[in-house]
Amino acid sequence: MNDSNAPQFTRDFLTDGYISYTFGPRDAEGYLVQLFAVDAASVRAIRHQSGAFYVLNRPSHNSPPALLVNGQDAWLLDYAVRTGGSVVPQQLWPSQGQGDRRRYVDQAQFSMPVFFINASGSLGVPVTNAAAGDMQLHGVNLPSQLADKTAMTIRISWPGYPLPEHQVQLRDQAPTRNPITLERFVKIVGSRVKQFLLDCERVPVQGPPSNWIVGHGNITSDEVMLIGLVQVSAFGWMPILQLMSRVVL
Question: Which domain of life is it from (predicted)?
Answer without folding.
Answer: Eukaryota
